[in-house]
Amino acid sequence: MLQRLKKNYFLLISFFLIIYFFFNFLSGDRGLISYYEKKQILNDLKTKELSLKNQINDLDFKNSLLSDNLDLDYIETLIRERFLFGKKNEKIFIIKKNGTEN
Questions:
Q1: What's the CA gap between 11 and 5, in Å, rounded?
Q2: Domain extents for the chain?
Q3: What residues contact 12, with CB distance under 8 A and at least 6 apart?
Q4: Could you report the per-residue pLDDT of 13-42, keeping only the tens digit for each?
Q5: CA 17, 18, 20 angle in degrees (round to 5)?
Q6: DSSP type of residue 93
Q7: Which of 21, 40, 41, 46 is nearest to 31 (CA)?
Q8: Which residues make Cβ contacts (< 8 Å) with residue 85, sequence separation at least 6?
Q9: Which residue among 43, 44, 66, 101 is least packed, with the fewest CB closer than 10 Å?
Q10: More confident residue, 34 or 94
């Protein structure tokens, strides 16, 4: 038995090395499965970045409306939405969802 192991020593070492590299190729920190997971995370972060950039542009636009040259129509819209103000003889209706008080 010991003689057979000595003869096939190179074959056994090669076999275990191939198995080791195969499992590390599929799993592990830099494996194929981890690669696809990181690729999905990268795509999610890119969409989130695009969404945040759009929000920043929207806020920059709104900020520019409130800068030195005031846009009175925009300010009136803000006051109506936030404080529920209306003009004289104007009726304001608040629509509530069924079963909620908001």
A1: 9
A2: 31-83
A3: 5
A4: 888 999 988 888 888 778 888 899 999 999
A5: 60
A6: -
A7: 21
A8: 79
A9: 101
A10: 34
